[in-house]
Specification:
Length: about 400
């Protein structure tokens, strides 16, 4: 992979930096600025080099329309605070407005361009449209730096096509994320534990089959656990269930047995009367999920306390641990305990404990954990999973 040093002298150069500043915003307030902070090392390096720094990113899914709530203007303010220097803003990411803003940049100045996805061409299926849009972006700069780790698995104009139009290199965030992922793929540290949760088992099939031969323990929680429990013959009430995946899951359970992998499923579950924050709830054994007072209409919304303790013991005594996906509906306080136990245990790993991006990263911050408590918090859930699955990431291919 080409790194920043391959770009040579950057003083006075216009550098187009693709970041992933797609942060959660609630009612106009950034609720987690992790991705902005993770982008700072490369931005600061470019400033130190005396470059004119032009940052582009997406925010949300405006689908090619100008949607004010997805404007990056709100990010410029936070970025400026974190950098402790002014950050100018261009109301469009291409065209006259953008080139005017670029033309007045001095060395060490930082400009943030408006949301790339206000233009449908950024994510278009048409290669020509993407290429033409990338060419418009390329006009603004002399070199390109790809540092949007969370979008590397996307074949999009500002991630993929652009890198063939300008001298290009990967930024520090991409380098750091990859070095952690490489350890997860190649390290010989044991015990190696992978913890998977979240809503859908179908999103995690690739990573399960790629990692099964490498790990000692595979712990399953979250909504996806009910497909595993159903595969073992348990009744799961109205809990999340992907019936079409039951046979695949049975195959994994068999494979794990023959590989000697310890697949650990919860033995108790927090069952709720409805899917809501203030739902009535109680703990039940996995073979009695339909025998609570909620009958067959109960919904499993978290792993139970006994299981949370078992998971925590296995995690905290691991040397290498990767966790992706909350253990329950952590957004509701009553169903966040399993996720909290897993997060706490991950901070105790005597080796490398990795939070695999997306909802797990949001969960640990929402539950009040400090970033530095973990070995690494990835900024890209989808990109991390695809890398661990062994898929090639388009945004990385072009920086090879
Ligand atoms: P994912 O995007 O697949 O990682 O899923 C994250 C989402 O899974 C979170 O919003 C959780 O609320 C949700 N989730 C976790 N456990 C459960 C469960 N038992 N039932 C329904 N949703 C769940």
């Amino acid at each position: 992979m080409r790194n920043l040093s391959t770009l040579g002298q950057l003083e006075s150069k216009r550098v187009l930096l693709r970041c992933d500043l797609n942060v959660p915003i609630d009612n106009g307030v950034i609720s987690d600025d992790g991705r902005i902070r993770a982008s700072l090392p490369t931005i600061k390096y470019l400033i130190d080099q005396g470059a004119k720094v032009i940052i582009c990113s997406h925010l949300g899914r405006p689908d090619g329309a100008r949607v004010e709530k997805y404007s990056l203007r709100q990010i410029a303010k936070r970025l400026s605070e974190l950098l402790d220097q002014p950050v100018s803003f261009s109301k469009d990411c291409v065209g006259r407005e953008a080139s005017n803003q670029v033309s007045i940049l001095e060395n060490k100045d930082v400009l943030l361009l408006e949301n790339l996805r206000f233009h449908a061409a950024e994510t278009s299926d048409s290669e020509t449209e993407r290429h033409d849009f990338a060419a418009d972006l390329a006009e603004l700069a002399d070199v390109y730096v790809g540092d949007g780790f969370g979008v590397l698995h996307r074949k999009q104009a500002s991630v993929y096509e652009i890198a063939s139009l300008l001298p290009a290199a990967a930024g520090y965030l991409v380098e750091k994320e990859l070095s952690v992922l490489e350890q997860l793929v190649r390290s010989d540290s044991h015990p190696y534990t992978v913890v998977l949760g979240g809503s859908k088992v179908s999103d995690k099939l690739g990573v399960i089959s790629a990692l099964l031969p490498r790990v000692d323990n595979l712990l399953i929680g979250g909504g996806m656990v009910f497909t595993f429990l159903a595969a073992l013959g348990h009744k799961v009430g109205k809990s999340l269930l992907e019936e079409s995946q039951i046979d695949t899951v049975k195959g994994y359970l068999e494979q794990a047995k023959s590989l000697g992998v310890n697949i650990v499923l919860p033995t108790d579950i927090v069952m709720a009367s409805t899917f809501s924050a203030d739902a009535e709830h109680l703990e039940a054994q996995v073979d009695e999920l339909e025998q609570t007072s909620f009958g067959a209409s109960g919904i499993g919304l978290d792993i139970g306390p006994v299981s949370a303790g078992v998971f925590a013991d296995i995690i905290s005594t691991s040397k290498l641990c990767f966790w992706n996906g909350p253990m329950g509906v952590f957004e509701f306080a009553s169903f966040s305990k399993g996720t909290r136990s897993v997060a706490e245990a991950l901070t105790k790993v005597q080796g490398l404990g990795v939070v695999g991006g997306g909802d797990s990263a949001a969960a640990v911050r929402a539950l009040g954990f400090e970033d530095r408590a973990f070995g690494h918090i990835s900024t890209g859930g989808g990109a991390s999973l695809e890398y661990l699955e062994g898929k090639s990431l388009p945004g990385l291919e072009v920086l090879a």
